[in-house]
C-alpha cells in the first residue's frame, strides 16, 4: 500500500475557534505516518495549547517564544521553512491573511512563510461579515494570484457566532485530501485550463417512488477523481447519482438519479469537456414500467419485466472529437484485463481502468482501490493498492504522460 510515511507537513495555526479542528488534522496526519511540525501564533494559544499540539504531533510545538532559539544553530523560521514539503495555514485568520497579502513578517508563522518555498495551503475561517468584508476579499484575491498559494474552503454552515453563512473552515478530512494532493503534485497545476467531466455514483432505476434497482456504488472513486482534478487546477463538472460523502466547494455538481438523467447530463456537458471520465456504476436494465404511486405489496408482480438502458459511454465514444479524451471504468471479477480491453475497443475509449472489485481493499465503498490502467496505444500500468485519491492522481498522470491530455 502506498503511504505518506515520512512526508513532511508544517502546520501554522492561527487564532480562531476552528483551531480545535486542526488538532484532529494533526492526529490524522500522524496516524498516516506523516511527520508533522506545528507553529502556533500568540492568538492561537488562546484557543489550544502548545501541549495539545506537542502531544498530537509527537514533536515540540513552535511558538513565538522559541522564535529566537535556533535549531541546529540556524534560525527556527529558516530551518522550518526548508524542512516543510507542504505548509498548511489553518485556521487562516483575517489578520494573518492581511499580513501575507502585504508580505509582513512580525511573528514566527509569517516569517516562516517568507522563508519557505513549498506550496502553501490556506484554510480560512472567520465570521461571514469578516469573510465578506471588502478588505478581506481584496487580500484573499491578491494572495491567490501567487501560484504558491492553494485554497481549501471556506464553506458555508453554522458558525461559532451562531450565524449560518460563508466562512466556516473546511473540514479536517477535506484539508487532508488537499494536503495529499499537494504532496503528490508538489503544487503543480498541470490540469489548469482543462475542463474535466466526471460521472460517479450508482444510478437507480425506480419501479415506483420507493423501490428501485440499484448497485452498491458509493461514488467515492469519482469524488476522488473530481478532487484530484480540481486540486490540479482543472474546471470540474461532476455528474453524480446518489453518493456517500460531501461534494467539496469549487466544482460544478449535477445531481441525477436514473441512467436516463445521467445520459442527459453527460450529453449536455460533453461538448465543452477536454477529458471525460465515466466512473459511474450505471444500471444496465430498468423496470419496463414505472408506477407513479407506491405499489401495495399485493400488487407487486411476481416477476419483473426489464428493458435495457442506453450505454452512455458507448454513445460518448461515438460523439468524441479528436481533441477529447474518454476514459471508462471496467468493474470486473476474475480476469480483469480481457473484458476491459474489449470495452476499451467496443466503446472507442482512449483509456480504461480495469478494476478488480472482488479484491479486499478495492471496489465499491472502499476508501482504497487497485487497478490496471490500459490505453488505446497498448500502454498498461498496474496500480498496487492505494487510496482512491492516490489512484485518481495516478490516472491523471497516466493519461497526461501518454500525451493524450
Ligand atoms: N456504462 C455506461 N452506461 C451503461 C453501462 C455502463 O456508460 N449503461 C459505462 C460505465 O460507467 C463504465 C463502462 O461503461 O465506465 C463499463 O461499465 P461495465 O458495467 O463494466 O460494463 P458494461 O458495458 O455494462 O458490460 P458488462 O456489464 O456486460 O460487463
Number of helices: 13
CATH superfamily of the largest domain: CoaB-like
User: What fold name stands as the CATH topology of the largest domain?
Assistant: Rossmann fold
Helix share bin = 25-40%
Low-confidence runs = none
| Integer count of domains | 2
Q: Alpha-carbon distance between the termini?
A: 27 Å
Q: Measured on Cα atoms, how large is the radius of gyration?
A: 24 Å
| Average pLDDT reading | 94
CATH architecture of the largest domain: 3-Layer(aba) Sandwich
Number of strands: 19
Shape label: elongated
| CATH class category label of the largest domain | Alpha Beta
Keyword list:
single chain; 405 residues; Rossmann fold; eight-stranded mixed β-sheet; five-stranded parallel β-sheet; binds cytidine-5'-triphosphate
Amino acid at each position: 500500500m502506498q503511504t505518506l510515511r515520512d512526508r513532511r507537513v508544517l502546520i501554522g495555526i492561527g487564532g480562531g475557534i476552528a483551531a480545535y479542528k486542526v488538532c484532529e488534522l494533526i492526529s490524522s496526519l500522524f496516524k498516516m505516518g506523516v511527520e508533522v511540525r506545528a507553529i502556533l501564533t500568540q492568538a492561537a494559544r488562546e484557543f489550544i495549547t502548545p501541549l495539545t499540539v506537542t502531544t498530537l504531533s509527537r514533536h515540540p510545538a513552535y511558538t513565538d517564544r522559541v522564535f529566537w532559539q535556533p535549531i541546529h544553530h540556524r534560525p527556527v523560521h529558516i530551518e522550518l521553512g526548508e524542512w516543510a514539503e507542504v505548509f498548511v495555514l489553518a485556521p487562516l485568520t483575517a489578520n494573518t491573511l492581511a499580513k501575507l497579502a502585504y508580505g509582513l513578517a512580525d511573528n514566527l508563522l509569517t516569517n516562516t512563510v517568507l522563508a519557505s518555498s513549498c506550496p502553501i495551503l490556506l484554510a480560512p475561517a472567520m465570521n461571514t461579515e469578516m469573510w465578506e468584508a471588502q478588505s478581506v476579499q481584496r487580500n484573499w484575491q491578491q494572495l491567490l494570484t501567487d501560484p504558491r498559494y492553494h485554497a481549501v474552503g471556506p464553506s458555508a454552515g453554522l458558525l461559532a457566532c451562531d450565524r449560518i453563512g460563508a466562512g466556516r473552515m473546511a473540514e479536517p478530512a477535506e484539508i487532508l485530501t488537499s494536503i495529499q494532493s499537494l504532496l503528490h503534485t508538489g503544487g503543480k497545476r498541470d490540469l489548469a485550463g482543462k475542463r474535466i467531466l466526471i460521472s460517479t455514483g450508482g444510478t437507480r432505476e425506480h419501479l415506483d417512488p420507493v423501490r428501485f434497482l440499484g448497485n452498491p456504488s458509493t461514488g467515492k472513486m469519482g469524488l476522488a477523481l473530481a478532487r484530484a482534478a480540481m486540486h490540479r487546477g482543472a474546471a470540474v463538472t461532476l455528474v453524480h447519482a446518489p453518493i456517500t460523502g460531501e461534494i467539496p466547494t469549487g466544482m460544478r455538481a449535477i445531481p441525477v438519479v436514473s441512467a436516463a438523467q445521467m445520459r442527459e447530463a453527460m450529453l449536455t456537458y460533453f461538448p465543452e469537456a477536454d477529458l471525460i471520465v465515466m466512473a459511474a456504476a450505471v444500471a444496465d436494465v430498468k423496470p419496463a414500467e414505472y408506477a407513479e404511486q407506491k405499489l401495495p405489496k399485493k400488487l407487486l408482480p411476481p416477476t419483473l419485466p426489464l428493458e435495457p438502458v442506453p450505454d452512455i459511454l458507448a454513445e460518448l465514444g461515438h460523439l468524441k472529437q479528436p481533441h477529447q479524451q474518454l476514459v471508462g471504468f471496467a468493474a470486473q471479477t476474475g480476469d480483469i484485463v480481457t473484458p476491459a480491453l474489449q470495452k476499451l475497443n467496443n466503446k472507442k475509449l482512449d483509456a480504461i481502468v480495469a478494476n478488480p472489485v472482488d479484491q479486499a481493499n478495492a471496489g465499491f465503498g472502499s476508501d482504497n482501490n487497485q487497478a490496471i490502467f490500459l490505453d488505446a496505444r497498448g500502454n498498461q500500468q498496474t496500480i498496487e493498492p492505494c487510496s482512491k485519491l492516490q489512484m485518481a492522481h495516478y490516472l491523471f498522470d497516466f493519461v497526461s504522460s501518454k500525451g493524450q491530455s
